[in-house]
Give the backbone structure.
Amino acid sequence: MAKKEKKKGLPASLPNRQGRKAGLNRRDFIDKGFRFSIAVGLIGIVGSLFKKSQAKEYVWQLDPSKCTHCGRCATSCVLTPSAVKCFHVYDMCGYCDLCGGYFRPSSKNLTTAAENQLCPTSAIERKFIEEPFFEYHIIEDLCIGCAKCVKGCGAFGNGSLQLQVNHRLCVNCNECAIARDCPADAYQRVSIDDPYLFAGFEQKKEG
């Protein structure tokens, strides 16, 4: 019988270099795949954030010059209390002693007693400055956006009390419930870079 030839090469106890190389390739492949999946995930997150920012490029705002003070801003908003608040444009204010936006028309005494106040939630703070001037400050947490003070200020004052959508509170719905219910069509989309509108007053822009 022919003798079997002995295979020349490395002892069997040493690792096969080709097999080790293949093992490294597999690990490299898994490592690269893992890093690739992370990169794809990050791209997805960045993309969704970009889309979200693009979706909020425009926001809802109320045009005070069209507002009829119907009271629906207080009741139609998806938030309770409403995201619509009274803003005080101090540059327009006359700092009146008899403020049409603060006192009820039937008030006989010009005091801060609740029965004399037009606001149903006492959201306006009256502060004496000097005779005969008073300053009026809106307490945001108490304001419900009912527009009673706005109507009174417009009728008997300079119109410095105005309703606006407060963008710290508004969730910027695709279809604004207040805009849908507004009888005066006073709501519109405005740029997020210039999100507030005030009637009779031009805001000073930086730049």
